Amino acid sequence: MKRILEIEENSNSPTIDLLEEAIRARAREVIESLYEDEVQRFLNKTSSIVDKTGNKLVVRNGFHKERTILTTNGYVTVRLPRVDDRALEEKDRFVSKVLPPFARKTPTVEAILSAAYLAGISSNKFSAMLHDVLGEGLI
């Protein structure tokens, strides 16, 4: 609320679309929460793997560098937890299904870009392509 009042009071400031900003903030929270839940399930599954002294061999290990993901709501920067699972074989290590290691776009964005390429962005089929991908009432 305070930020809205600041923008209204200062008419010389650039317009900020608060709705879009709120949607991207919520998208960040959702992505981070889903990833965190996935990490926690993996850690619970591997909690019985310990060394000779009883220390867990698969543990959380801080956070990855922030990563920017392109979503249908714009770019979202996320901070994701890291897992130290070097004690496991390569095939058993943590790989996220929510956000694979090198993913930079959501599957929906990938579909939109692929469909745009196939339809030819400069052609008159572009709005029909967006209608097919995004659905009724979104364009």
TrEMBL record:
Give the superkingdom in one word.
Bacteria
Chain segments annotated as coiled-coil in the UniProt record: none
Q: Which UniProt keywords apply?
A: DNA recombination, DNA-binding, Transposable element, Transposition
From the UniProt record, which GO molecular function terms apply? DNA binding; transposase activity
Q: What InterPro entries is this protein classified in? A: Transposase_mutator
Query: Quick one: a GO biological-process term for this protein?
Result: DNA transposition
Which family is this protein grouped under?
Belongs to the transposase mutator family.
Q: What does this protein do?
A: Required for the transposition of the insertion element.
**UniProt xrefs under PANTHER family:** MUTATOR FAMILY TRANSPOSASE, TRANSPOSASE FOR INSERTION SEQUENCE ELEMENT IS1081
Protein's name in the database: Mutator family transposase
What are the top taxonomic ranks of the organism?
A: Bacteria, Pseudomonadati, Spirochaetota, Spirochaetia, Spirochaetales
